[in-house]
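Researcher: Here's the sequence for the chain we discussed earlier.
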Amino acid sequence: MFLTLYANIKGEIIESRRLDMLGRSGVDWVVPAQGEMMPLPKGASLICIPGHIPVGMDQNDQLSLLSSASTAKKVQAVAALLPQGFTRTLLPACVSENTDAELPLMGYAAVGFKDGKIWAAAVQSDEHRKWHPCYYNTEGLPKRIDRMLKKYPANRIVKQLAKCSLQYSCYTAQNLFYGRWEAGIPTMNACNAGCIGCISESHINTDSPQERLSFSPSVEEISEVGIEHLSHAQDGIISFGQGCEGEPSLNANNLAQAIMKIRQSLPRGTININTNAGYTAGIKKLCQSGLDAMRVTVFSCREDNYNRYHCPVNYKLSDVEESIQYMKKEGRHVALNLLVFPGFTDREEEIEALLDFISKNGVDMIQLRNLNIDPALLFKHIPAGGEVFGITELAHILKEEIPGLKIASYSHPVK
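Model: Thanks. This is the structure I predict for it:
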């Protein structure tokens, strides 16, 4: 068994000697299986969950709060924030001291203590190398940003990415200045969805952790950044559709022109779009201009739950499928950005719908991405219930049922 961890008033992480650890799956508290836990990955961070008290299992197999009364001091629940390449299997088991309080939009993963070390509810779903925190927020980053700002003093995208690098610690923004791997190019303020977990524009009266792009960049600004990155970056990818913007395909006219300018300048590197793929006309135009890859964000492949979470405007899930099918017909790479939430994504009916969606539309890759949202908030909009298989079993089923499907957690170069 794993022991419950908590933080004292000083923020010190301590194991409870009287309570075994529980995790949360959907609306249920569960005892974690060995396969759902792993030693805390390098690059993960431990944080307190504000205003929440841990819940564990006592010696009589009864649920118990690790309250201040039982410890003679104030306690807080703790969780891990996982680095890229790891998928959460369970949420922390805890209760709020204030039922009206909402958690920040973070991917809290359950943690426990065993054999003298801290364990996290996680499985590795991709390589960790390129996204290890040690490669980001380095001492030399501000100088790199200053050099790029001087090189492109009139480019508003560069200024936006400088802000995202320093204020939001965005890794894809920082990669532009490091000259490597995947770099984001935000270009669009508007969106055709009202996702309840949107990180740049609140649709449910909650605070958003990022500020959305406030301008419409020119074709010249977009192509300038794209050429700069793909000319120098190892394993270079440029991606439209970042956390600080809306739906990039709505900007298809400018993006198509920019892509053609980039491709006229150099053929190498991957041009990718992160999208909801609901605006099929825009996706087709971008594909025709030279787009290499598309990553489609999906919470559920069942239309009712898709609509509850994404709140699409002027498109349906069938339009998303049409966009994917067109990209595949044109020989392009398509990945699903599956927003994974333990106790929902691993429900039997959700797995069946996901398998059907992937097979029917010829998806190449599925990226298992931890959904950052307060579970209480999510289940205000999404009905609970259904048999749950577990996240590790979900990954196993995907591998078994769809041979050749690549399972990952972030975008990979395709050319």
